[in-house]
Every structure is written in C-alpha cells, then in structure tokens.
Amino acid sequence: MTFTKPTGLACAAIAIAALLEACAPQPRPSTTRLYAVDQRGAARSCTVPQVTAVAGAEVPVRMAVGNDGGWCAITVESGGRPFSHGLLTARAQNGSVFIHSVGDATRIDYRPDRGFAGLDSFTVKLRPGDAVLRASVAVTRG
Prior knowledge:
mainly beta, Immunoglobulin-like, four-stranded mixed β-sheet
C-alpha cells in the first residue's frame, strides 16, 4: 500500500470539512433539569402553606414571618411550569415583594420593613391564567 502526500487544495478541503463539522448542531444532553435554590437570606421563622394556583381563581394565603431581616416565600405550583410573570396589584404597605421563578414553580418573596411588627397584606395576579393570590401576613419581631 502506498500513500501520497495531499496537495494544498486537499489540505484546505479537509480543514473546511473539519470546521463545518465543529459548527454543526451538537446533540442536546438529557432534558432533565437541575435547579439550585439560593436559601441565603431566608427568615428563620416563616410559615406558609403550599399553594396551587388555578387559572381565574383567587387563592387566599396566610403567612407568618419573624422580622429578622430575612424573606419569607410563597411557592406557587402551577402544573409543572412557572408562570411567565406576576403583577403586584396591591402592594405591601410594610414590606417588599419579589416575584420570580425557581425551577418549575413561581416564588413570591415577602420581606418586612426593618423593625416592623404587625399585619400586612399584598395581592399578586399571575400570568398567563389570571390566578390571584391574596396574601395576609402576620409579622412578629425577630
């Protein structure tokens, strides 16, 4: 068997083929998703039930949180996918609310204002589907 040295044109063709192969779409890895939830900053005392939202329904939620500077979260299940967004339709008077996705759920974090103790409330409309959560919050000192 004899081998011949490739010409410059053959080398260029091999290089172009290798570049095109590298740019070709690669097979996707498994669709199993892994999520890490950042729990730093959570209040030491936080009591909230698990919430399942149904399109067009209003869900009352009772929260209890100790005001130690941390947040307390409502995790809203919605059938395997988080809501695309939430609208704060009635804001908390004595704290802040943050709506975001964590894995396959929507999470609504409430953080009471520094030094506040008492009752607070807020309302969130989740989209799509217009599920409404009316949260009443009992805040105690740290």
